[in-house]
């Protein structure tokens, strides 16, 4: 099939965007203004360094009069199974040199144990077949392998206390999960901070956010809601997210205090698991 009909790689996709933009007589700056993206983002897409999200692709189709072309032929990543709204963020996660994530409700995917991840995937609102769950679980565990490198990416994990207190699965599952994070924190692989309930309202209370930095690309912010997610690369938006993160981090417990809280709550789950065994 001809390239203009089916661009399957980011490079081909970018070449096709450039061809259609130039055919429309638009500069990158002119196109960026019409589709509400930065010129830098357009340039990265055309160079094959980034992919648009679904909403970006729809706006490109609308402005360039390409039907549903750019939406339908978003680049296939590498066959890994993830939620549709997370595909773009997954690609960036692999390349990041630093990740700062805020977790309001659940342990972030790269920090999940197999048992915890299995409970999350089994308890979702959308029914999944065993095969779907297994594929999603395999990808989630593969994502955690970025922590096998002892130096990169640098990871800051900021947790709402609710993540520790909300039981996902059995007490034994929670105990294992919290101690896994303690081990990562004590080995200095990640920085751990907890926003205790006593803080009340804080700058990130409204949702999940992940900030990522790269060697040769501008930083991005990934913001997620219920079955939706958006990658932001506009400097003003990324800066706002970073400021909110920094403000929330200022309200959080120190790394040492946070690890102590993780240990304490893990012990509570351990005692609960032991009581369940003897009842």
TrEMBL record:
Taxonomy of the source species: Bacteria, Bacillati, Actinomycetota, Actinomycetes, Kitasatosporales
Domain of life: Bacteria
PROSITE patterns referenced in this protein's UniProt entry, alphabetically: HTH_CROC1 (PS50943)
Protein name: Helix-turn-helix transcriptional regulator
HTH cro/C1-type domain mapped to chain residues: 17-70
Positions of the UniProt region annotated as Disordered: 1-21
């Amino acid at each position: 099939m001809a390239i203009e009909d089916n661009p399957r790689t980011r490079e081909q996709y970018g070449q096709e965007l450039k061809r259609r933009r130039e055919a429309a007589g638009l500069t990158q700056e002119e196109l960026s203004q019409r589709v509400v993206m930065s010129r830098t983002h357009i340039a990265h897409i055309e160079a094959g360094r980034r992919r648009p999200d679904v909403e970006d692709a729809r706006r490109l189709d609308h402005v360039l009069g390409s039907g549903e072309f750019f939406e339908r032929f978003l680049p296939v990543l590498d066959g890994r199974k993830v939620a549709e709204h997370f595909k773009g963020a997954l690609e960036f996660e692999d390349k990041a040199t630093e990740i700062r994530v805020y977790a309001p409700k659940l342990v972030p995917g790269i920090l999940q144990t197999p048992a915890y991840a299995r409970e999350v995937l089994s308890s979702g609102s959308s029914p999944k077949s065993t095969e779907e769950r297994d594929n999603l679980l395999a990808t989630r565990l593969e994502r955690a392998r970025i922590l096998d490198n002892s130096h990169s990416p640098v990871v800051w994990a900021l947790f709402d206390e609710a993540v520790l207190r909300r039981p996902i699965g059995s007490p034994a599952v929670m105990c294992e999960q919290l101690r896994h994070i303690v081990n990562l924190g004590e080995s200095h692989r990640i920085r751990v901070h907890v926003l205790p309930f006593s803080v009340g309202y804080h700058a990130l209370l409204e949702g999940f956010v992940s900030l990522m930095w790269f060697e040769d690309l501008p930083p991005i912010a990934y913001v997620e809601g219920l079955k939706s997610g958006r990658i932001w690369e506009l400097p003003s938006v990324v800066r706002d997210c970073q400021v909110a993160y920094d403000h929330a981090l200022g309200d959080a417990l120190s790394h040492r205090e946070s690890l102590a809280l993780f240990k304490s709550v893990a012990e509570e789950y351990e005692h609960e698991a032991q009581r369940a065994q003897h009842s």
